[in-house]
Write a structure and sequence with these properties.
The protein is mainly alpha-helical. It contains eight helices and two strands; from the N terminus they run αββααααααα.
């Protein structure tokens, strides 16, 4: 599991199995520990259907295991803060992206929106029925996919058209602010010192966003040195591809 959407995918796939007591995710090592009773065959079938190359590492019996629930109020509050920061910069980057004619900023804004969708899925779907969770995931996935398709179409139009060169100053300045925003998210997440899976996943996801921010900044510099629109369109294409991948992962939640 290398992002929150994969973790959510697994949780939702197994959510209605009453024999499961708890799930413990080890994001960096891509391991999942399932605390369960009765025969595990149905659990393996659900995991295999996700096509994550599931392999059994170890199966042991334990007694009187105390399970800690992940959704503490402190962590939920922290995730709300991270969601708010991501959604704020989504709005800022989307607006300035169109004003400055930069597809890199527009694409980065949709990447921020993708993060917000994943965090929102984790927060809004808690405690709901499987039908509700799947409907939320389906709506979010199709919306994100629609945005990615729109982005690709716009990139193609700008590649073949005679668009003006993006305002590199706006690209760089706004991306620096977005970088600071993601840095704040990382600080908040790391400050919690939580070893819970969803918190680790959030840190990995935010770290990836920092790389995207740096990519847009570099593209802005290349726009300045080459006086060309192509560096902006290339970084936009890369980020839209990432957004599209995220959409397909989220859509798997609804199956």
């Amino acid at each position: 599991m290398d992002c929150p959407s994969e973790e959510q995918m697994i949780k939702m796939s197994l959510a209605d199995l009453k024999e499961i007591s708890s799930l413990a995710f080890d994001i960096p090592n891509r391991k999942l520990t399932v605390f369960h009773s009765n025969n595990p065959d149905q659990i393996f079938q659900r995991l295999d259907s996700l096509k994550f190359d599931t392999t059994i590492i170890e199966s042991i019996s334990v007694d009187n295991t105390e399970i800690e629930f992940n959704n503490t109020s402190q962590e939920r509050k922290l995730l709300w803060q991270v969601l708010a920061i991501n959604f704020f910069f989504f709005a800022i980057e989307l607006t300035t992206g169109f004003i400055s004619n930069s597809m890199g900023l527009v694409a980065d804004s949709l990447d921020m929106l993708a993060d917000s969708i994943v965090y929102g899925l984790a927060l809004f779907a808690v405690g709901g029925t499987m039908t509700r969770k799947r409907n939320i995931a389906k709506s979010a996935g199709y919306f994100q996919l629609l945005l990615a398709v729109f982005g690709f179409m716009e990139v193609i139009r700008r590649f073949v058209g005679t668009e003006t060169v993006p305002a590199f100053q706006t690209m760089i300045v706004i991306s620096i602010f977005a970088l600071i925003g993601n840095g704040l998210c990382l600080y908040l997440l790391q400050k919690s010192k939580s070893k819970e899976a969803h918190m680790q996943a959030s840190m990995i996801f935010t770290s990836n966003d920092v790389i995207v921010n740096l990519g847009v900044i570099v593209a802005g510099g290349l726009v300045y040195f080459t006086n060309s629109k192509y560096p902006d369109l290339v970084i936009g294409t890369v980020v839209f591809f990432i957004v599209g991948q995220g959409a397909f992962k989220i859509l798997k939640l609804s199956k």
